[in-house]
Amino acid sequence: MRLWSRATAIRRRMLCLWLLLLGFALVTLALSDLFSRDRDHSRDKPGPPRRPLLQRIPSPPDLELIVESRDPALELGVDVAPLKSLQEDELLFVPSVQGTKSAPQKKGSYKVLMPGTSKGTAVPGTLAHGEMGKAVRLHLDGLEKDMEQAAVQKYGFNEVVSERISLHRRLPETRHPECFGEQYSESLPSASVVICFHDEAWSTLLRTVHSVLDTAPRQYLQEVLLVDDLSQHGHLKTVLSEYVSHLDGVRLIRSTRRLGAGGCRTLGAARAAGEVLVFMDSHCECQKGWLEPLLERVAQDRTTVVSPIMDVIDWQTFRYNATQWPVRGVFDWRLDFYWESNPQLEDKDPEKAVRPVRSPALGGEVVAIDRHFFQSVGAYDPGMLLWGAEHIELSIRVWSCGGSMEVVPCSRVAHLNRHHLPYHFPDQDLLQRNKIRIAATWMDAYKKIFYRRETLAHFIRQSESPNITERMRLKRSLGCRNFHWFLTTVYPQLYIPQDRPALSGELYSVGTGGCADYPHGQGLQGGNMSIVPCSGTGSQHCDLNSEGEVRWGPMGALCLDTKGDRVVLSPCPTHRPTASRLQWKFIKLSGQLVHQQSQLCLEAVKEGGLLQSSPREANIYPSTGGLFLRQCTHHPRQQWHFEQVVAPKGA
Ligand code: UDP
Ligand code: MN
To answer: Where does the record place the Ricin B lectin domain (predicted)?
Structure first.
C-alpha cells in the first residue's frame, strides 16, 4: 500500500514537471514571436534605425554572406591569422545595458561619449566646492585628452570627435553654381556602392553608409554592398550585422580571408548587381548630387572611369575642407599618388567649372567604373598585397588598355585623410612589393627611373622576382599599349629623367661628407637647400640633364635655383629654352658645379660648422648652413660627386 501510494506520488510529481516544462515552452514561443513581430514593425518605421539592442537575432539568409574566398586569384601571398569570423560572431558577448543604473551606451566593448555626459571620479573632499568643480573638470579634460589620444593611436583619426557628430550630418554646399543647372539623363545606369572595410571605426563606417543612403537617388542605387575584410573589432561583428539588417538596400558580406584593399573590392564586384560599381572607402561623406554626374559619364562611355572631386575631412577635428578645382590625380617616379590642385589653371569660363578633366590616375577613395569594363580590364591585380598602389596599377592599366579616367567636378565626396594607417602589416615591405609589380608589369625600361628613386624596392627586387605571368598574359590579350605611349599621350607633364652616369644620383659633398637635400614638406614649392647625411633611399636623387637643369624630387619638377647667394629649389620651367639662372655645368675633373649665369660655384656649408673654425667667415655664412654660390676655388667644400646608389645599367 505504501509502495503503491509512493508510486502514485512520483507519477504525480512527474506529471507536474511535464506540465511545467510544457508551460515554459509555450511562454518562450509566444515571447519569441512577439520579438520577431517587433522587429518587423521596426523595419516599417521611418527614420534611421537605432543602434541595435544587444541581442542575437538571426539574419535573413540573403543579408549576410560569409564568403569562402577560395578562389586562388583572390588569395593573398602573405600569412595572416586564419579567420574565425563565424566562431567569433557566435562567441561575441555583448552585455545588456537594460536595468543598469547609469546605462552607458555601449558599443562593442567601449563606451560612447556624449558631450557633457561624462561623470567624474572621486576627488579629495578637502577642496572647496568651486575648486572641486574645477579639479573635476581638469581631471575630465585630462581623461578626455587621453581617450582622444588612444583613439588616434587606434584608428589614425580622432574617433572621440567622430562619435559626437551625427551619422546624418549635412555638408556645406561647395559645388560650383553652374552644377545646379546640369541636366542628367533620366535613364542612368544603376550603381552598386561597394564599401570594403577592415577594422573601421563604427561612427565613420556608419556615417559613410548613411551618407550614401541620404544622398543617392533610390532609383539609381542598386545597393550598398559592405564587404568585411576580416575585421577583428567586436563592434563590426554581430552588432553590425544587426544594425545593417534594419537598413533597406544595404547588404553585408564577410570574407573568410584577409584580401587587402584591391582583393576586397574585386570580391565585392563579383557579388554586386549594379551596372556601375562605385568603390568607396569606409570613411567618406557624400555631397548632395554626387552620384548622378558620375553615372552620366560612365553611361556616355562605358570605358571611362571617374572620380568625384575628393574633399577632405580633417583627422583631428572632422572639419570638412573643400578641394580647389581643377584637380587631377597624378603619380611620381616613386609611384606615390597625389591629387594635384592647380588653381593657376582655373579659367573664368563657367563651362570649365562643370567639365570633367582627364586624369592620368585616380585615387583609391572613390571610383566609379562600369561593372563589365571592370571585369574585362582585369579587376584589381590579385597579386597586390593588403594596401598600397593598387589604384595606380588600375590607372595605368585602364589607360593603357583602352579606357580613360576623369575627375567629375559636379560630384564631390569627402574622404577622411588619416594621420597614419591603423593596420599592422605582416610584411613591412609590402608597399614596395606592390610597386615592384607595377614596375615589372607596366613600366618597361622606364622602371629603372623608379628603382633609382626607390632604392629599397631595387634591393628587394634583386633577391626576388614578382610572379606576373598572369598579368602579362592579360596585358597581351587586351593589346595594351606600352609605358612610352602612356607617358607621352596621357601624362606628358611628367618629366622623364635622363639619369646619365656620373651626372645623376645623390649630390655628395666631399668637403662635408653629406648630401644635398631640400625640405620635402614644402612639396612643389621647393625652398632652401641643405646638407644632411646621405640617405641612400633615393629620396636625394637628382638629375643634371642636357638642358643644364639639376632636377630634383620624385617628379623631377623642382630645379636647382638661386636666390641672392643662397641656392634653393624652385618649380622647373615648363618651356624651353631654360633660363641661364637655372643652368649648371659639372666639371668632372675638379668636381665643381658651376652656375652658368653667375659663373660662381656651388659650395656646401654644414650647419654651424664654419662658425667655430673660421670667425672671419661668420659674417659671410649664416649659422644655418646650406648651399651657397661662391667664387670658384679648389676647396673641398666646392667638390661634388653624383653618387649612384642604383647603377644606371646600360643607361
Ligand atoms: N581595406 C581593406 N582591407 C585592407 C586594407 C584596407 O578592406 O587590408 C579598406 C579600408 O578599410 C578602406 C579602403 O580599403 O575602406 C582603403 O584603405 P585606407 O582607407 O586605409 O587607405 P587610404 O585611404 O588611407 O589610402
Ligand atoms: Mn581611406
So the answer is: 504-643
